[in-house]
Design brief:
The chain has one domain. It is built from nine helices and no strands. With about 230 residues, it is mainly alpha-helical. It is found in: Membrane. It is a multi-pass membrane protein. One of its GO terms (cellular component) is membrane.
């Protein structure tokens, strides 16, 4: 049995009040609605990160110790990436990608702290989760890297980072089904971004990307709370 220390615990998030989760949902819906309507501008970048700010408040309230610190760092890098990708300037995609790269590596380090040992029975569960992730990553690399042109090295590094995040979630020895689901959903969101940018424009791409992105961040937050409880 895994027992979390008192100075690095994660209180069960489902016990918390619904005010912040509902604020998260409301903020996400407002942003996605305005974005789908075609509104643009620097103020939209600020609105884009409001749901992530709600998740940060949830992390502050319901997590503790190093788990909370790393979660807040990952959310902060995510918010930075959101802003960079929403603004228009030279190499904004590369800078945004870099911010999310740091977010993925921080998440991976956080999740690896609870990874199962190789001789643990849960290592079989990890393998069953890891194989589809690795297969999907290989297919994505074959599809995207030739189309990415001069951005191929940056795309490859980011792909490796998000795969590392997903595998670290897969390896968590706690009740990590929700955590792993969040990681896979994050991969799906980034896949939509890459397909839309490098392969062909997708219908309702912006809404689909943000819906899966916000859902992934929410699942990761609740998932780490459940896995380490």
């Amino acid at each position: 049995m895994h027992i979390t220390s008192s100075n690095d615990s994660a209180a069960p998030l489902h016990r918390a009040g619904l005010r912040l989760p509902l604020a998260f949902v409301a903020a996400a819906v407002v942003y996605m609605t305005l974005d789908a309507s075609g509104l643009r501008g620097p103020w939209m970048a600020s609105l884009k990160i409001v749901p992530i700010a709600m998740l940060a408040l949830l992390a502050l309230r319901d997590l503790s110790g190093l788990t909370r610190t790393l979660t807040l760092v990952a959310l902060s890098f995510s918010a930075l990436g959101d802003v960079l990708l929403a603004l228009e300037f030279h190499n904004q995609f590369v800078f945004g990608l870099g911010a999310f790269l740091l977010a993925q590596l921080t998440y991976a380090g956080n999740f690896l702290r609870g990874a199962a040992r190789l001789n643990d029975w849960r290592s079989k569960r990890t393998l069953l989760r890891a194989l589809p992730v690795l297969a999907a990553a290989l297919l994505l690399a074959q599809l995207l890297l030739p189309a990415a042109g001069e951005l191929a090295p940056a795309v490859l590094v980011y792909l490796l980072a998000i795969v590392a995040m997903a595998l670290s979630a897969a390896a968590h020895r706690g009740d990590s089904a929700l955590l792993f689901a969040g990681a896979v959903t994050f991969m799906a969101s980034d896949t939509l971004i890459a397909l839309n940018k490098f392969i062909a424009p997708l219908p309702l791409a912006g809404t689909a990307i943000m819906l899966t992105y916000y859902a992934a961040q929410l699942a990761l937050l609740y998932g780490i709370g459940r896995a380490r409880a």
